Amino acid sequence: MFKDKGSRFIGLAYQVKSEAEVKEILADIKKKYYDATHHCYAYYIGHIGSPSTRMNDDGEPSGTAGKPIYGQILSFGLKNILVVVIRYFGGTKLGVSGLINAYKETAKTTLSNAKIEERKIKDVYTIEFEYPLMNNAMQVLKNEAIEIKNTSYNGNNVIITFEVAWAKKDEIMEQFRNIHGIKQTYIATV
């Protein structure tokens, strides 16, 4: 919590994976803190390539709430996060610089006190090949950057679904490309 000239600012942080999840959390916050003057927020969802981001000032002067909150998300280097700062107006206007400082400090304190989980980005792939290539495929799949999720058999064909650490995926997939007869398919980034 942050206080300035009678106004109270409450910061909340949530791990999120989709915009639908953000909308649900915001609806719950607005119900719980229905008497608050403003519910400002920023989020960053996604991985390398095409993240989804948004900043919202919720009636505060443009750029005084969502942008400083978002700046703290970037400053902490976080992804898949929603930060909400709730303001209860105290009767005295803070001015543009006062608002920017209040939202920035509340977000900073919230993130400093949050339990932050570090997760490695992984790509999910399937490989499909005929059974005689099993030893060749398993030599590559033994790599510590790979986690096999599922193995299935369709007659003489083997289908293996696995996750590979994003930092190692190019090297691993190149090894599979060098084995004639292995078909590889990208599924998702998690």
Rounded radius of gyration (Å): 23 Å
Strand content: 35-45%
Strands ordered across the widest β-sheet:
1-2-5-3-4
Tell me the span between the first and last alpha carbons: 33 Å
What is the CATH third-level topology name of the largest domain? Ribosomal Protein S5, domain 2
Explained architecture:
The chain has 190 residues and is α+β, with helices and mostly antiparallel strands. It folds into two domains: 2-113, Ribosomal Protein S5, domain 2 (2-Layer Sandwich), CATH 3.30.230.30; 122-189, Alpha-Beta Plaits. It contains five helices and nine strands. It has a five-stranded antiparallel sheet with strand order 1-2-5-3-4, sandwiched between helices. Strands 7-8-6-9 form a four-stranded antiparallel sheet, with helices on one face. Strand 3 (38-45) and strand 4 (52-56) form a beta hairpin. Helix 2 packs parallel to helix 3. The protein is elongated. The mean pLDDT is 92.
